[in-house]
Amino acid sequence: MRKVVVTGLGLVTPLGIGVRRTWQRLLDGQCGIVSIKNRSPEFAVLPSQVAGVVPEGKKKDGRWNAKEWLNPGDERKMARFAQYAMVASTEALSDAGWAPKAEDDLEATGVYMGSGIGSLDDVYDTTVAYEKGGYKKVSPLFVPRLLINLAAGHVSMRYGFKGPNHAATTACTTGAHSIGDAARLIQFGDADVMIAGGAESCIHPLAISGFARARSLATDWNDRPTESSRPFDRERAGFVIGEGAGVVVLEELEHAKQRGARIYAEVAGYGLSSDAYHMTAPREDGHGPYLAMKHALRHAGLKPSSIDYINAHATSTPLGDAAENRAVKNLLLGEEGKTTASEINMSSTKGAIGHLLGAAGSVEAVFTILALHNNTLPPTLNLNHPGDPPEDFDCNYVANTAQQKDVHVALSNSFGFGGTNASLCFSKM
After folding, report:
1. Closest-CA residue to 368 (of 301, 310, 328)
2. Spatial separation of the C-alpha atoms in residues 248 and 171, rounded to whole Å
3. Is 425 an annotated catalytic residue?
4. DSSP string covering 356-394, please?
5. Helix residue ranges, H only, 205-252
6. pLDDT for the residue numbered 111
7. What is the CATH topology of the domain spanning 4-258?
8. Name one GO biological process term (predicted).
9. Other beta carbons less than 10 A from residue 340's beta carbon
10. Can you give the pLDDT at residue 390?
11. Among the listed residues 345, 350, 315, 316, the one whose alpha carbon sits nearest the alpha carbon of residue 328
12. pLDDT for residue 389 is more than 90
């Protein structure tokens, strides 16, 4: 198999727009979760009134203003999730220094961009308009804005990339699946370069109502939004919905070397599995996540003892965090693993940005790559009392403050409704 490396990164997150800004704020322990109670009367009556929102403002301040970030006409043609994907892709391509013009290069460059839900706003608004006014109230752009694969389509059209044009939609595992699948397209020779990631923007009363009715959301910290997402903490009681996009430029190793590209990391392994258990709840023993991580290490040809850091999926739910914690310990402790749980370095960056659904896996993959590249572990915010029970939560969760550690191999985990799991393994070259 051909080796695949990461040569470019792009981010749109609740901590701001741009990799440098987001990463620095993450390491500084800042939080992008805010109150959404005053957005509208519909938000004010929801049981969960907090969200990880991409901050609006001026471009120079790393904030979102569509007219400053996008080309004329883009805002009308693209749903918000696709807009985020475009901005993150533009940053990643610039970071990679990849702007091909030759036909052979364009044909060897593809896009793999997914979303978990896509444009819920368009579905809701068009449904209401149709009920009131019928056929003529439906925009001709309704379907193109709705389709999840249009994020990849728009990026491909903007830059003229004629390689694979693909999209995943696997709930909260989407971003990780997009990166892993894109890496395999390069390994099998279908492309030399892939722009890959996930994007999401569905902070809407209907989406929040649905997750709240499923008892998935945090509801106890509406007056203290920055404390609401608390992975691995014994007071965790649900996730916080977020929005944004994460994009990486993946490249065949020799191709990257030939053009002198900076290499952040190698995509060393990619593991997939299914819980085969429940629509929304994980198995208590974490067997599905365990299998995904095990397969990622198998593909990488590495032993559990080699893992220096795990960016956990940990969404701040009682069942999910416990199951993943159990899976990680089952994998990393033992004959070919660590001696004690305290040697396991694992954090969840969702304490700072919330759960970005279809974008979570790719945003957190970027964080994992940066942790490896900079030998810095990002913190788990709001982790004051690990547990419950505390004796099971005895790893190093990088509580509240970033840590300097030598990182040579790292895993990034993502799991989704329907029991779908993925784990990405990154290593230094």
Report:
1. 310
2. 19
3. no
4. -GGGHHHHHHHHHHHHHHHTEEPPBTT-SSB-SSGGG--
5. 205-213
6. 98
7. Peroxisomal Thiolase; Chain A, domain 1 (3.40.47)
8. fatty acid biosynthetic process
9. 9
10. 82
11. 345
12. no
Please indicate, yes or no, whether the overall pTM of this predicted structure exceeds 0.85.
yes
Pairing of strands 309-311, 409-416: parallel
- Are the C-beta atoms of residues 420 and 292 closer than 8 Å to each other? no
**121 pLDDT more than 90:** yes
For 38-84, where are the E strands, in sequence order?
Answer: 50-52
Q: What residue type is assigned to position 153 of the chain?
A: G
Cα 230 to chain centroid distance, Å, stands at 17
pLDDT per position as a tens digit, 60-110: 999 999 999 999 999 999 999 999 999 999 999 999 999 999 999 999 999
Spatial distance between the Cα atoms of 341 and 336, rounded to a whole number of angstroms: 14
* Helix-, strand-, coil-residue percentages of the chain, each rounded to 5: 40, 20, 35
Mean pLDDT of 316-340: 96
Three-state SS at 396: strand
User: What phi-psi label fits residue 73: left (phi over 0), alpha (psi between -120 and 50 degrees) or beta?
Assistant: left
Domain boundaries for CATH 3.40.47.10 within the chain? 4-258, 270-427
Q: Concatenated DSSP letters for 4-17?
A: EEEEEEEEEETTEE
Q: Burial level of 335, CB count in 10 A (0-12/13-18/19+)?
A: exposed
pLDDT at 346: 98
Residue 53 DSSP class: P
> Nearest Cα to 373, choosing from 421, 323, 279, 309?
309
Burial of 284 (0-12, 13-18, 19+ CB in 10 A): exposed
Q: What is the pLDDT of residues 253-303, one digit of tens each?
A: 999 999 999 999 999 999 999 999 999 899 999 999 999 999 999 999 999
Query: Which pLDDT does position 334 carry in this prediction?
Result: 84
CATH of span 270-427: 3.40.47.10
Cα(230)–Cα(159) distance, rounded to whole angstroms?
40
Give the model's pLDDT for residue 404: 98
Contacting residues for 128 by C-beta, under 8 A, at least 6 apart: none
Taking all residues of the chain, what is their mean pLDDT, rounded to a whole number?
97
Q: Say if CB 366 and CB 336 are below 8 A apart.
A: no
Longest pairwise C-alpha distance within the chain: 67
Active-site hit among 31, 172, 395, 425: 172
Interatomic CA distance for residues 255 and 199, integer angstroms: 27
Cα 23 off chain centre by: 14
